[in-house]
Specification:
The chain is mainly alpha-helical and about 100 residues long. The protein has two domains: about 30 residues, no CATH class; about 70 residues. About 90% of the residues lie in helices and about 0% in strands. The chain is built from three helices and no strands. It is rod-shaped and about 105 Å long.
Length: about 100
């Protein structure tokens, strides 16, 4: 009785819900041990919801990182192409100068 009284005292505002649950249990001849499984399932649902929120956050973070890396890669490609074009232009200028002389 100690655990039940402590739970009821902690949840004074929800006494109607607890009394409704006790009435349901008494009317349907449900044993207390039969209630453990649904309670465990409810706890599992809450844990899965928290895990889902964390996974969604992780996914958002990874997508942001992906966008950042794509921008960095585009910047590197752009710089590489600019340097390549400069090198080609200098090479053509040098080869043209050599043929003129």
């Amino acid at each position: 009785m100690g655990l039940a009284s402590r739970v009821l005292m902690e949840n004074k505002k929800n006494l109607g819900a607890y009394l409704g649950l006790f009435d349901f249990v008494n009317e349907n001849k449900i044993k207390v041990k039969d209630l453990h499984h649904p309670v465990d399932l409810a706890n599992n649902i809450n844990n899965l919801k928290q895990e889902k929120v964390q996974l969604e956050y992780d996914l958002d973070t990874l997508m942001d990182e992906k966008k950042w890396y794509e921008k960095e890669l585009d910047e590197i490609k752009r710089k590489y192409l600019q340097n390549s074009l400069k090198t080609i232009c200098v090479f053509k200028y040098v080869s043209l100068s050599a043929t003129v002389v």
